[in-house]
Amino acid sequence: MKKRMIILGVLIIGAIIGGSLAMAFSTGGAAARSSKIRRTILLSFKPEATPADIQKIAQDVKATIGKLKGVHNLFVGPQIIDRVPFRFGISMDFDDENALKAYRQDDEHHRTHNDYVHLIDQAQISDIRDE
Q1: How do residues 95-126 score in pLDDT, each as one tens digit?
Q2: Pairing of strands 88-94, 71-78
Q3: Which residue in 55, 99, 125, 130 has the most C-beta neighbors within 10 A?
Q4: Which residues have CB under 8 Å from 86's CB, separation 6+?
């Protein structure tokens, strides 16, 4: 009886290992890597930038960038943590690298940047690929 239990245990362990290896090397059941990209832009403004200027930037970004094809989940607003140098942020998701490339080349994106760059002291940009 004890010998049968050992053999049964070995067979079960073998089946588990075999199944695990089959799943690890199978491409059909594996989830595809996401193509989405999140861009986060952190900004600090020069002292001469008024609250009205900052509000105008936020409205302009929402009105122009938020309408671009392939752009989703646009967030624009003030930073809520006081101890950081960047006091304002813009975050958006792109469907894929082509949507990010189109955004970078878009005339409205360039206009928005050029209209307000004189008010920006520092900027930090990060692009994160969703896995």
Answers
A1: 999 999 999 999 999 999 999 999 999 999 99
A2: antiparallel
A3: 99
A4: 42, 43, 44, 79, 122, 124
CA triple 48-52-58, angle to 5 deg: 105
Is the pLDDT confidence value at 15 over 90?
no
- When pLDDT is cut at 50, 70 and 90, the band that residue 5 belongs to is low
123/87 Cα distance (integer angstroms): 10
What CATH number does the domain located at 37-129 have?
3.30.70.100
- 93 in helix, strand or coil? strand
Decide if 57 contacts 116 (C-beta within 8 A).
Answer: yes
Sheet strands side by side (includes 88-94): 71-78, 88-94, 37-45, 120-129
Domain spans in the chain, listed from the N-terminal domain onward: 1-30, 37-129
